[in-house]
Amino acid sequence: MEGITEGVNKMSVSETQKKNRIQVSNTKKSLFFYVNLSKRYMQQYNEVELSALGMAISTVVTIAEILKNNGFAVEKKIRTLTVDMRDDPGARPIPKAKIEIVLGKTEKFDELMAAEAEQNGDNEEQQN
């Protein structure tokens, strides 16, 4: 247990989970869950990093395109790489494709979010 604590204490900031990173899975949540989560992260941090492995890469690209096409985000950085994954501690590493897309807020972001919130408020009133 002490070894684990020691290892965690020695970690640099780049190794720890970034606060504005969303790790996307193509099986766990719906596409629009990630779109809405990305908007909230951009409100809070001014930018969001979408990250995915393997088959979830297409989901990340779709999320980024939805945000860009609707005027919420601009692309800041795209990074593709290959990471070695192991199923078991002693197993041979298996290379997996990885993508990281950093999106920033557009100038119209706050205006679009306010309009969306107003529209959602109207929809809730109509349902009651």
Automatic annotation (TrEMBL):
All copies of domain DNA/RNA-binding protein Alba-like, residue ranges: 20-81
Cellular compartments per GO CC: nucleus
UniProt-annotated stretches for the region Disordered: 1-20
One Gene Ontology term of the molecular function aspect: RNA binding
A Pfam family it matches: Alba
SUPFAM superfamilies (alphabetical): AlbA-like
Designated name of the protein: DNA/RNA-binding protein Alba-like domain-containing protein
